[in-house]
Each structure stands twice: as structure tokens, then as C-alpha cells.
Amino acid sequence: MRLPSIRRSQGRQGPQGPLGSRVHPARRRRRWRTPAAALLAAALTVTGLASAGPLVAPASAAPSGVTATAGNVTGFTRSGNTFTITASGGAKARVVLARADIFRLWLSPDGSFANDPAGSDLAPTTDFGPVTASHSDAGAYYRITTGSLSIRVNKKPLQFSVYRADNATPVWQETQPTSWTGNRTTQYLARGADEQFYGTGLRLGEWALRGRTVPIAVDNRWRENDNASPAPFYMSTNGYGVMRNTWAPGSYGFNAPTTLTHDEKRFDAWYFTGDSLKSVLDAYTDVSGKPFMAPMWGFELGNADCFNASNPDYQGDHNRLRHLTTPDVVGYAADARAADMPSGWFLPNDGYGCGYTAPLKSTVDALKAKGFQTGLWTSTGLGSIADEVGTAGSRGVKTDVAWIGSGYKYAFNGVQRAVDGIEKNSDARRFVWTVDGWAGTQRNAVVWTGDTHGTWDDMRWHVPAITGAGLSGLNYAAGDIDGIFGGSPQTYTRDLQWKAFTPAFMTMSGWGATNPSAGYQDKQPWRFAEPYLSVNRKYLQLKMRLMPYLYTMSRVAHESGVPSTRAMVLEYPDDPVARGNLTSGQFMAGDSFLVAPVVSDTSVRDGIYLPAGTWTDYWTGRTYAGPGWLNGYRAPLDTLPLFVKGGAVVPMWPQMNYTGEKPVSTLTYDIHPRGSSSFSLYEDDGRTRAHASGAYARQQVGVTAPAGGSGAVTVSVGAPIGSYTGKPASRGYEFTLHVASAPATVTVDGSPVAGLASKAAYDSAASGWFFDPADRSGVLWIKTGTKAGAFTVAATGTSLPAAESLPAASPIDRSAWSLVHADSEETAAENGAAARAFDGNPATQWHTAWSSGTPAALPHEIQIDLGARYAVDGLGHLPRQDGGVNGRIGGYEVYVSDTTADWGPPVATGTFADTAAAKAVALPPKKGRYLRLRALTEAGGRGPWTSAAEITLTGRPAP
């Protein structure tokens, strides 16, 4: 386990008294064996909280010293691709061109350029060959021109701006000179009218950052809106990204102007430009390093726990059943296989005094015989890693906060030592998990969200957190399934469902609740009763079948920096809905799957946004035409809302419980034909670093089909090009084409394939086809037999599924909302301020005042400025979710107006039921900028109170 966490009560004291508190005691005392860890322990001791604040004060603290700037330009010289600017205040700046689209801007207040603490750690690759560039004096500024950019150096005062090569289209512009004090430097940039920002590492919350201030600092608190693995990197929809070349903490305020601060007396940044967010990520990771390529077993479910509890040094329960010595882990491996439950690796030694029973090798070998790899968890360092990897055969490392919790360069170096320990003592690939990352960590490690809780609310913000990490090039980002504290069978199952569509995931055992069943605290997916057991198996099996698809998507990340888990904006950058946090609760798994996790205790999922194109429900085959919003989606416990993009080509393995359990004697391509599409399958040995030397193969698959209606579907399969150890000389192929009607003919390379009368006959045949209209609204199954080279499959006379249109109304973005008026709000005994009714966090609420004097009488009301004019056609109301019942709105009125001086008649009236469930009201479309919600009565009649956890609206802009 990591740092023990003592959480202060978040229970709400309301007019009915306290509504509950919850304290998570430290389960174990921790030993600190390194100087950095000792400092961390001292900080925790002083505060009395294990999840104490930042070890280094973030840049929001008050500055010290006088603020200075460079002054005016007094000189401009060029040496090769380095341009040096001298300023009147004694400062100097350098513009270093690395590529036509990449440059470094370094401002030295003392003009020496001697202070370079990051060196090549964060930017290991900066030599891309010669750069064709020119410069000129444009009067008010000097101009540096490449094939992609025009960099302007303003003379009076020294300021920088960047334009496209036309010198007319702005990319970014300083609004005032960069300034510094004795310990802080800040850059100020203009913010575009609709410019959006992404990045800053593994931020625990929504990923669209306009209007937010984000600390770029390590604090190891691991709660919403903290930054678990900060990165001094962000990118903008203007087509650029920035990495500050520093280890210093900072703060980025994406306001107007944008203020970008780090705690050091220097400015040093790499700038990357492109024509898309994907191209910016590509350039950023060209310099900072591409995401590493994990071994295949690293995509399988992992489990971390202590199986050496009898060790006297262990700081936990010494009598844990079936966890007394390290070989006990083999019993758990046997349980997994007996339950037919896919999983691939164990970390059998909790780092805090657990250790492992020697000799380690016998346990590693026994696990390997059951298809499991072994990793080790360290809270102290890597003193024995050469023997653990080279002799015993361990293959993974988890670096814990007790060792690398001071973060920054110390943590970065610790991760690098773990990488070296694996790769210098074996032919295996790096597989390291770290809780404290920085820019460049994507090339070395999985980052995860720290010590979190098995609650619906934690799951809610985990979705955008893990998705948003990819917007900083972090391909492998994870959070413990169902957290480390608490949890339930329901939250575990829902959390595992969606995380199965991310590259790496793991359970943290031993810290969960002891109920509802004995052994539940193990948090192993096979330790649950039905129906949870079967649902867990279903999604783990699906991930194993999708291994060639997900593995290929991570190869794309390895080559381009574009993550496997993608925010919608990466795939749909021009869609205004996809650009912001309206889609932060869903993501793309690669380029074909849209995943919309269920993160509350419900069987109905609302607010699923399907962008332009066609989208097919993975489970039912029902097809929708985007763009539009899908509400009321039926999602019982066993159903993750999952949609496949029209044109998708998805390679799938036979079912197996771990990589290599069975030969891939037949490769299936699951295809949703729609127009022209393609897929390039990537394959290698899955274990070693031979791929880095070119030992891999690719297979190109192209599909042509009508855009809709009837016609022929043709699948052209290329021969696998390349070689690697274990590559099959030939294999069988199966195709599942999602079409609406049986074909007239099916051919392979022009030769007819026999149609079969039943699925049973098809399953037993070596080749043939069968159309099943009842299978997901229509599936055409085709087997070709064994193939070694290229071939073509064609189905004529079939038809594609018809696509249903979706409602056009969309949620109104709440980031610009502000409170106009609330007649009453509680702020003395709690923060029940009215703005909490639209802050995006269902755990907070507006509550009318109750703690002092006589409470205000009903009716109560809240007035909200929407920030712009809309045609409002729907209101959503989520009652308080903290377990309290008073204040639920009963009778209500809704008003929409262009002015708060004249509301006019209500657009809707009615009565809400006395339940905690979300409520929705359809409104006749009404244009206006302001919303007024009046609570006329309290549901249940318990008192004169009103409360609301969340208020949402749907509608369209109405300029």
C-alpha cells in the first residue's frame, strides 16, 4: 500500500443534524529509508495528515523580491540556428530552432545561460538535422522564419509572438513582457475568444482547462482537481504546445491573459506547432520521448498485495489467511485459472515491510507456469534488482511514494533506475508503475492516480483524469480498480468495465471493506459472488479478445504520441461539443470504440454524445447517425455503453486467459463496413525489446463498402510484412461483417464460398459463410481457411444497417455560468453556497441557510447567468446526494429570460418526486441568457428548506 490516508470528514451538518462522517485510519505505519522519504515523513508528522500538502510550495504562493523584465532589445545576432537577443536590462534570450515546427525559447535574466537544471532529461532528442531558416528586421520587430513559422521578437519592449509561415495567422502572442522575481518567472499570453487548453499531466478531473488554474506541483493528495503526476506541458486548440524545461513547480492559469509561472528565476520552454492536436503531441514526444511499448502481459489485469505477511518487519496483519509467505500467491493464481478469469501479473510484496520469501525464483517460476508474470513493489529503492530480474526472473517494478514521493527529478531518476534494472538484466521491456511523474515519464512508466476510494464520485472524476492524461502524451495512465479504500461489488464491477478498455489496469488488494462477503478485501475479480463474478469475467475476456487491437493502438502511441485512450477532441477537433468538458465523461478507445462509463448507481445512462458519423451499439447492433445526444440508454450492471464507429476494422484473438495460452490459429477481423476504411495490424513477440531493432510485422486491411443502403462489401487483406520470433507462417482468418441482410454471394479471391444452413454447421466447417439476422441486428460470418499471403473477400448483394437520427439538443456548457442571485444559502456551518448547484461536482450542493436564527421561508430561488444566449429546451435537477433528504425540491417553476428585470411567465411548472434520483424537465424552447429556478415547496414537507446538487440545461446557442 502507499501512503496511509486519514481523510477529514466530508459529512454535511444540516438542519437534521450531522449526515455522516467517514475516517479512513492509516492501516499501517510506514518506515522511511531514504533522505527524501524522511523529509516527506517529517512533513506528514507536522501536519498530522498522511495526505499532506505539497512538499514544495506551488507557484500560487506570494512572490518574493522586486518584479523585473528584460527591457528593450539592444542586439540581435545569429549563429547557425541559434538567435541571441540582448536586452537593455542585462538579460538575454535565445531562440534555438530544432526543426521547422519546433524551437526552444530560453530567457536568462543574468544573460549567462549557465543555469540549465533539466539538461537533456526532459528533452533528450533535439537534433533533427539542418533547419532552413532566415531572419529579417521588420522595424518594430525582428522576424525569424522557417517553413512552418514566423517568430516575432518585438523590440520595445522585448516580447515574443509566433505566427504561421504567412506571418499573418497568430499561434500565440505575449501580452506583456515575461517577468521575474528572485524565485519566480511568469509568461503572459493572449487567450483567443474560443481557445481551449489541455495537458498538465495526470490531472485528477476534467481535461478541458480554459478558465482554470492548474498547479504544476507534486502534493500526493490524490483527490479531485489535484495533479497526481504533473507535467509542465500544455497544448492549445490554436495548434501549439509548450513544455517548460524545468524541474521547478509552477502554476498555469488559463485565463485572460494566460499566466504561466514556475518557481525559478529563468524561463526555458520548448514550443511545438502543428495543424492538429495530434501533430502537436507527435512533435512534443519527438523531443520528450515517445510512450514506451509495454509487454503484452502488461495489458492484462494485474494485482498488488502482500503475500509475505508472516515477515516480522511487515507493518500489517501478520495472520492474513493465504498470505503468510510469498509462495501463497501461487494459490491465488490457481484460483484465477479455476475461475476462468483472465489476468496476467502479480506484485506479491507490499513494499512496507512485507518483502518476499526467499528464494524468489521458485515463486516466479510457479507463477509463470500458470501464465503470470511477477513484478515487485518497492518503497525503499532497488538494491536487489539485478538479482530479482536477472536471476529470479521478475519483470515489473512499482515505485512507491515512500521512496519517490518527493517527486520532480528525484522521482524521475528513480523511475529511470527501475527501467535500467529491468533492461540491463534481461531482454525484457520496461514495465514500471509510478505515482509521481513529470514531462518525459511517458517514455518510461505507467502513471496512476494514487490512493483513491471505491466510490461513485471517485469513479466519476477518474474517467476524465485517465482520458486527459493522454493529452500530455501519457499513453499508460491508470487508477486502482475500485480504489484502494472502501468499495463495493457494484462500484468494482462498473470500474473494471471501462478500465478494461484502457491499456494498463490493476487491482490493489487488502485495503477494501471486509463485507459484503468474506475475502472481499482481496479485490480479486474472481472473489465476488454472482452476478458480479460473471460480469467481471465478461469484460476481462473481451479485453483479451481485443488484445491485437489495443496492442496496435499502443504501437500507434509509441510511434506518434497519440494515446490509445483518447479524449473526444483528439478524434473530433472541429466539433465544438468535443472540444470541452461536455464529453469528459466518455472517451475513444483507439480510433474505433466510444466508451461511455456508468459512474453512478443507475441502470440508465444519459448524456452520451455521438459525433458525426455512424455509431453501432456493440451489444445490440442498433445504429445511430451523429452528431447528437443519446439519453435513456439502458445500461444494467452487465452493460457498459459501448459504440463502434462506422468503418471500424477490429482484429480479435481467440478467447484466452493470458497471452500465449493458445496459439492464434485463427485471427478474426470484426468489421462495421461503411464507406472506405482500413486498419494496419501491428504484431511482434510481445515480450522483448527486439521490436526496437525492427523485429515486427504489419498487416494492412482495407474495406470498401457503400456509405449506406445496399451494395458490395470488399475486404482486402495484405500479407503480413516483416518478421519476428514466433511469427506464424500462415493462419486461419474469420470475418464478422455487421450488415443488415444476407449476401447474394461470398467469394475469396473470386472463388465462391459455400453458404451454410446454421451457425453450428458454420462453426464446425473449415470455411464457409453464415448470416445470422438475430445476432446484433445482423452479422455475416465468413471463414476463409488458412492463408499465408494476401487475399480478398467480397460479399455482394448485402445492405448496411439503417442509422437512426439523434436529438439535436445538447447540454449547455456550464464553465461560463455564474451566480446572479440566491435568496438564501448556507455558508456558516458548511459551504452550501448556491454556485455549488452548478459546479459539476454532485458531491457538493446549494442548501438554503439553516444554522443561524430562523430559516428563510419558502419559496426559494436561484438565478444563473449562462454566459451567453441560448434556446433552452430542457432542465436537469439532481437532488442532494450526501444521504440527506431535507431540501429536496417539490413544487417548482422555471423561467428563462434575456433580463433579470423581467422574467415573464414561467416556461414550466410541476412537482418533483421525493427521491434522490436525477430529474429532467422538457421545456418549450425559450431563448434567453438567464435562468431562474423557483422552489415553491419542499418534497416531503419536512421544512422550509431547498437544496440542489446539480442544475443542468440543454439547448442550442441563440446569438
From TrEMBL:
PROSITE patterns: FA58C_3. Pfam families: DUF5110, F5_F8_type_C, Gal_mutarotas_2, Glyco_hydro_31_2nd, Glyco_hydro_31_3rd. Transmembrane segments: none annotated. Residues 798-956 form the F5/8 type C domain. Keywords: Glycosidase, Hydrolase. One of its GO terms (molecular function) is hydrolase activity. It comes from the Bacteria. InterPro entries: DUF5110 (IPR033403), FA58C (IPR000421), Gal_mutarotase_sf_dom (IPR011013), Galactose-bd-like_sf (IPR008979), GH (IPR017853), Glyco_hydro_31_C (IPR048395), Glyco_hydro_31_N_dom (IPR025887), Glyco_hydro_31_TIM (IPR000322). Residues 1-30 are annotated as: Disordered. Belongs to the glycosyl hydrolase 31 family. This is Alpha-glucosidase (Family GH31 glycosyl hydrolase).
